[in-house]
Write a structure and sequence with these properties.
The protein has about 400 residues and is of the alpha+beta class. About 45% of the residues lie in helices and about 15% in strands. A 4-stranded mixed β-sheet has the order 1-4-5-8. Strands 2-3-7-6 form a 4-stranded antiparallel β-sheet, with no helix packed on it. A two-stranded antiparallel sheet has the order 9-10. The protein starts with 6 loop residues before the first helix and ends in a 5-residue tail after the last helix.
């Protein structure tokens, strides 16, 4: 196994790093992209949209998309290197990530030529920002249990129902969603994958859901007789589950709760500054042992990602690594947050910087928000079922 990059790949890394150094606006830098996946207000959202447009103009967005769709046709390793350098620069998650990472690749596989021409060119420069209408109050982990209806009447679908946990809906221009088009079909049948062209359409209401950390990154979305053209269906009528699984495969690949290594190293630095029992926290054996264990697990996750990368480079179908990384990453995030509260004590609950812990708000956010990642993108229970039943052959 060769873990070294080739000279060509290292040259590409240097090029990416230099471009980001010269072009990334420092005022957009964030300590932890997990905390601000969605902009906290419209002003910052528009700045991030402009940043995505600048990236797209330089050819960095959709780097691995085919050239025919406006991408760079870069190989997988170049995309991985770019992502590493992007987050190393403390750059924020792009406002158009749902379109770039989820809808775009799905349309390339399932969309008509007309749909590809209409939607794909506007995704990369964030001319259109998308949100995802999947989860419902009674259909989160059990997504196939959704009840939102889309009734075909002449040339239009009429949509009624509700979605929940819809990230970025307050800023989105468009939505891709699942709706039941045949209520009498079996559970995973009778579902269609649809596109709403205008989130400002009559009958759509977006209501904010504010987390206990004060963040507003997801919403409830209600549909009351919302009308969309019948040509806005992606894939066959009543066979939308197959299309949805394609999108979910892309989502799971980016929902592994990454960034833990940087958090652990920052906590190791703080352990040398804060005190527990009148002496530096680093002097306590349990602090060093916990930090060492976290770094061991971060390294294990790193090599699991490399295993997944190897499969993709060989053209093999996805293996169990996606569910493994999602499960391990989200559970590790909860444990790191708990450790941060034990290490920092009262500093872990402060929402304002202090001289001793200038990034105190980051740890408050981790403490309050980490549990959500054991639910978002597929619960830990679902991931265990996938690994147990599909990989290990255990009984249901």
């Amino acid at each position: 196994m060769d873990f070294e990059y080739t000279p060509e790949q290292e040259a590409f890394r240097v090029k990416v790093r230099a471009w980001l150094k010269d072009n990334f606006p420092p005022e957009l830098a964030i300590d932890d992209p997990m905390d601000e996946r969605i902009a906290p207000n419209r002003e910052i959202f528009e700045k991030r949209r402009a940043w995505q447009r600048k990236l797209a103009d330089a050819g960095w967005v959709g780097l691995s998309w085919p050239k025919e769709y406006g991408g760079g046709s870069a190989n997988l390793m170049e995309q991985i290197i770019f992502d590493d350098e992007y987050f190393r620069a403390r750059a924020p998650v792009l406002p158009g990530y749902s379109g770039v990472s989820l809808l775009g690749p799905t349309l390339m596989q399932w969309g008509t030529e007309e749909q590809k021409k209409k939607y794909l060119p506007r995704i990369l420069p964030a001319a259109d920002v998308w949100c995802q209408g999947y989860s419902e109050p009674g259909a989160g982990s059990d997504l196939a249990g959704l009840k939102t209806r889309a009734e075909l009447k002449g040339d239009y679908f009429i949509i009624n129902g509700q979605k929940v946990w819809t990230s970025g809906a307050q800023y989105a221009d468009k939505m891709f969603l699942l709706a039941r088009t045949d209520p009498d079909a079996p559970k995973h049948k009778g579902i269609s994958y649809l596109i709403i062209d205008d989130m400002g359409s009559p009958g759509i209401e977006v209501r904010p859901l504010v987390t206990m950390s004060g963040h507003h990154h997801f919403n409830e979305v209600f549909f009351d007789n919302v009308q969309i053209p019948k040509e806005n269906i992606v894939g066959p009528l009543n066979e939308g589950w197959k299309v949805a699984v394609t999108t979910l495969a892309f989502e799971r690949g980016i929902a592994g709760g990454g960034g833990h290594s940087a958090q652990v190293r920052r906590l190791a630095d703080l352990a040398r500054r804060v005190e527990i029992g009148g002496r530096p926290a680093w002097d306590h054996e349990w602090v060093r042992q916990d930090l060492a264990q976290f770094l061991i697990e971060c390294e294990a996750a790193k090599y699991t990602r490399l295993r997944s990368l190897t499969r993709r480079l060989r053209g093999l179908p996805p293996g169990p690594e996606g569910s493994t990384l999602k499960l391990v990453g989200s559970e590790l995030g909860v444990r790191i947050a708990r450790f941060a509260s034990e290490l920092l004590g009262p500093y872990a609950i402060l929402g304002e910087p202090t001289p001793l812990v200038p990034d105190a708000p980051r740890w408050q956010s981790r403490l309050l928000s980490s549990r959500q990642y054991t639910i978002a993108g597929g619960t830990s229970e679902i991931q265990r079922n996938i690994l147990g039943e599909r990989q290990l052959g255990l009984p249901k």
